[in-house]
Amino acid sequence: MLKIENLNVGYGEVQVLWDINLEINKSEVIALVGSNGAGKSTLLYTISGLLQPMSGSIKLDGREISGLPADEILHLGIGQVPQGRRLFAGMTVKENIMMGAYLRKDTERVKEDFEFVLSLFPQMGERLNQVAGSLSGGEQQMCAVARGLMANPKLLLIDELSLGLAPIIVENIYEAVSQVIQRDMTVLIVEQDVLLALEQADRAYVLDVGHITISGDAKELMDNPTIKEAYLGV
Amino acid sequence: MNSLELTQCIVNALLLSGTLALVAIGFSIVWGILNIINLAHGAFLMIGAYITYWLFTLYGVDPFLSLPISMILLFIGGYLVQRYLINFVIRAPLLVTFLLTFALEIIIMNLAVVFWKGDLRSVTPSYAGMGFALGEVQVPYVRLAAFILSLILTGLLHLFMTYTKMGNAIRATGMDIDAAKLQGVKIGHTYAVTFALGAALAAAAGSLISISFPIDPTMGGAYTLRAFVICVLGGLGSIPGVMMGALLYAFIEVFSGIWAPSLKDAIALLVLVLVLIVRPTGIAGKAFYH
Hints:
Chain A is of the alpha/beta class. Chain A is built from ten helices and ten strands. Chain A is globular, with a radius of gyration of 17 Å.
């Protein structure tokens, strides 16, 4: 579905990602893990079109998408739940969630999807008219995931969902995400919490200071000695 | 000042506040969403006033009926100016957009002097001088109508921003531009629509002002200044804040006009300085549009 080849990305003169190769097949759950500052968010921003690569290619279903503007990439089917949630703080929960469906014209399906995301996150239903900035951290993350789902993307990129949240809340949100995955959505999970990500994923890539150093089956990577030592602390 | 004069001043200030709010709201959304202090705002207002003047003088169009025409024309003009001029420097520091809109103001004003002459002109429909008396307080019809229309337009803007997809996209862009891009918002188009709305509201204010006051090509600068002060008073961010700022400003202007006419602008700016010192976020200030 998504194929990234020899991708180089930087901010001005400073290169952040070197020679990235990554492939996502349909209905797969891929984890992209690595420590803080490894370039994970930079990669997601590049896929979504917020950053332009220096060189290399990003193909969605065989079509070159690198260099396209963000709205076209979303229209082609790649959505993102960005790091830090990035809700529209002054807008209500309902307005935030509906912003996810901004490009969609299929009004009836949008209504069904809205009911679906509320069933995933019943707490959101109770807070529809509340301003998003007033939500707790966990609720904000739910709202951000709900907004991401409303675009009904083929591929959803989820960035650092667990950041700053209590484990029980993280578990709840991943529970909801796994329900979405069962509805045939392909997901790329970016996590600093390596164990958590590997538990969710089919395959995983490890990003280390701008390079992909390890990749493979997620369950096997849990037993990989390098990963155990560097990321799992065992 | 006796109680009759006082009441008359209060009525005058109230009526003035509606139009001033309309002037300032267009200025405020452009500032709040695009982070551009549009010094050409008053020039757009002046063009709106002249559209009403010429439609009335040449074709006998009722000045109130020309309101939608001047709004539509300035909406289109504003869209083009943003999309094909200001958009090229939108990422540049504030000073660059400041200078660009300043230049635009001067160009528009000078073209207006060349084509329309610098004379003071008035729109004088048959009902221009008419009014009614509330007790002994005089209420001119045209100013009351301008006040009501200003409130209606302000209300419509609020509904547009709250209940339409484009309105939500504009607010979202003002709050978090990258997050808005990730929802598929086309920033260039959204910015242009925002700027166009600002220009259309300026045009509406200009049309309404032309019915109550004489107009000339240099009239715009004073309104840009008023819009600026009102935005600072009300805080950049909310429609109610701008309306409160306009109300306060109108009272200051009307009363200082009575007590110290020659110091009218100085007093308004003194209040601006005091507000900036005491409460830099304005009366109801919030960061962005809500």
